[in-house]
Amino acid sequence: MTHTIAIVESDPLSRNQCVAVLTRRGYRVKSYLDRTAALAGIWIKPPDLVIVNVSLESEPEGGFDLCRQLQQIAPDLPVVFLTDRSSDLDRISGLRMNAWDYLITPVSAEVLTERMRWILHTHNLTKQHKRGSSRIHCGALEADPEQQIITWQERSIRMTVTEYLLTIALVRQPGKLKSYDGLMQCTRQPLVERNTISSHIRRIRQKFLEIDPDFNSIVTIPGVGYKWADSGPLQSDDRQRCQTTPLTHSIWRPLESRYGRR
Q1: Residue with the larger pLDDT of the pair 121 and 8
Q2: CB 75 within 8 A of CB 46
Q3: Is 231 helix (H, G, I), strand (E, B) or coil?
Q4: pLDDT band at residue 23 under the 50/70/90 scheme
Q5: Residue 49 phi/psi, 5° resolution?
Q6: Which end of the chain has less Cβ packing within 10 Å, N or C?
Q7: What are the DSSP calls for 185-230, one per residue?
């Protein structure tokens, strides 16, 4: 599947460079030089992702305004800021608008294309998840994928997006080992290490324990990963993976992986 990326950039040199990089990677690219043109084009035929500068033509914050407008007409459309505006205030403003990333130029072609690959892959998984979404029941747990709400013993648990995604990844296949690498792929984070996953799981456990002191459904498979199990011993295939899976892992997936090959 060939994805379409819209670039909104007033500077011709920066716009042309970005178009060239993404086109070489196999993307279809549409470019716009201001907010008005971008809004009109995206309204007619939405792309799969939008890259926008904060400053557009005579509008110092035109990119922020465009992001707000896109949230109204296409709330699920990923928006990425690519800009030389590097203040913490600007970065926080962009991320609070639910932008998927805020990249500060200069950015290498490799980093830019890898970030786009990861965002598009993650967004596609999210869409598939929503299309097949129905309430999930597993023991005392109930999850509403549409609203991203989890309840345990009929009591709601407040979770971050990452905590929710990790919990659902385990619950969807109870009793089956979910490796660290598999859980890394479930997060919306570009660079994740094992201790990061472990920290998330620790916080998830604590939130369940606050409701149910006897909670023990998240089972640790030492050195390998986790699984969701209301009860039952470690399965034989899990034991084998515990014995054969090395502790080392690759943080970054190669660009030629099944999802990123261009």
Answers
A1: 8
A2: no
A3: coil
A4: very high
A5: -160, 150
A6: N
A7: HHSS-SS--HHHHHHHHHHHHHHHHHH-TT---EEEETTTEEEE-S
